[in-house]
Structure formats: structure tokens, C-alpha cells
Design a protein that fits this description.
- By secondary structure, the chain is mostly beta strands.
- Helix content is about 0%, strand content about 60%.
Length: about 200
């Protein structure tokens, strides 16, 4: 680690005991267990390219739990085995105006989900996976001074490509129909204006 560059790698292994198990009669006991193992890798660089700040991260996760109403040790629905992200930020000045623009890309492999037909389809519990997750977002900001106040104008667009990401599936009671569970909107838009109105205590 230095002032302008950071590299971090963290392997881990965890075990879980006394997790809550829910019985068929809705009773609860602390008899569950599980484990999580994986590795996180992070690299950030503000040195190589002028006025550029970027960082890259990767995470591998292998986890299984026998808790809640799980019949066996299985992967929970929130666990994606591989997650990769890259963030890019470019700052520049034009006629004393300070701008910055950036982009973020996130990729994750499919998550497990509960399929009530898993026994009939000769599968194990929570062995079905959603499609891979992809999200490209962009942002822009402009900062200036108005009298003694900082003014920040920011705008961003989430999921620029409009990819229909799927987090899970909901099944009908008889298991014959299903509907994808995804974000409320395929794209998100944000525009914000921020003005500092407090007094700088350093001047008091």
C-alpha cells in the first residue's frame, strides 16, 4: 500500500454453528451449521494514468449452510460464486471548471434459487442457478463555488445497456409456473444538486 496504489488479497475460511433451524411445525432450534471459504482481491491505482483513479476487485465465494428450512447443507440464495467489478473515474479541468466522469461495471455468476420441482427433476436442493448478472453504469459530476459555498451537480445512469438481470424466481403453488424476480426498473436515472450551507469552522 502506498499513497497512490493499493493491493490487497484476503483468503478466508469461516465455520458457522448454532444457526436457526425452522421445523415443519414452525419450531425454532439453534441446530444449524455451515461454512464459507473464498478469496477477495482488490487493486486500486491513482498513479499510472494522469487524473485517473480506477480500482478492480474480484471475489470467489464457496459457502453452504444448513439453516432456516433447508433440508440439507446447501448454497444460500444470496451467494454468487464469482463477482468481478471495475470502477473508472476521470477528472479534468476546462477553463477552471472541474469535471469528473466515471463508469462502473459489475459481473457476477448466477445465484442459487429454490425450485420446488427439484426432487421431480432429480436435482439437489437449491442447485438451480439464475443467469449471470451484468451491470454497466456511468456517472458525471461538476463542482464549483457559489460565493462561499461548494456546489456539486451530479448525474448518473444505472444499467446503461438495459440488461434484464434476474435475482431469483417465484413459483406458483403447484410449481408449474414461475416469474423472474429482478430490479424494479431496467435502468435508473439520477440527477442531483448539492450545496454546502454550513460554515467552515476553520475560519471561526
Amino acid at each position: 500500500m502506498s499513497d497512490l496504489q493499493t493491493f490487497r488479497i484476503e483468503p478466508y475460511y469461516k465455520t458457522y454453528n448454532s444457526l436457526v433451524k425452522i421445523g415443519l411445525d414452525s419450531s425454532r432450534k439453534n441446530t444449524g451449521n455451515g461454512y464459507a471459504r473464498g478469496i477477495d482481491v482488490f487493486w486500486r491505482d491513482k498513479k499510472t494514468f494522469k487524473n485517473v483513479d480506477y480500482w478492480i476487485s474480484y471475489s470467489y465465494l464457496d459457502t453452504k449452510r444448513n439453516y432456516q428450512n433447508f433440508p440439507i447443507l446447501a448454497s444460500p440464495t444470496f451467494a454468487s460464486p464469482h463477482t468481478f467489478s471495475i470502477v473508472y473515474k476521470q477528472s479534468f479541468t476546462l477553463d477552471k471548471l472541474n469535471f469528473s466522469a466515471g463508469a462502473t461495471y459489475v459481473f457476477a455468476t448466477g445465484r442459487p434459487y429454490y425450485n420446488p420441482n427439484y426432487i421431480a427433476e432429480n436435482k439437489t436442493f437449491n442447485s438451480d442457478k439464475t443467469i449471470d448478472y451484468n451491470n454497466l453504469s456511468v456517472n458525471f459530476s461538476y463542482i464549483t463555488m457559489f460565493k462561499e459555498h461548494f456546489v456539486l451537480l451530479a448525474a448518473s445512469v444505472g444499467n446503461v445497456l438495459g440488461i434484464n438481470n434476474v435475482f431469483s424466481y417465484k413459483y406458483s403453488n403447484d410449481g408449474t409456473r414461475r416469474a423472474a424476480v429482478g430490479p424494479a426498473a431496467s435502468r435508473t436515472f439520477f440527477i442531483g444538486l448539492f450545496i454546502s450551507i454550513g460554515q467552515d469552522k476553520g475560519d471561526i
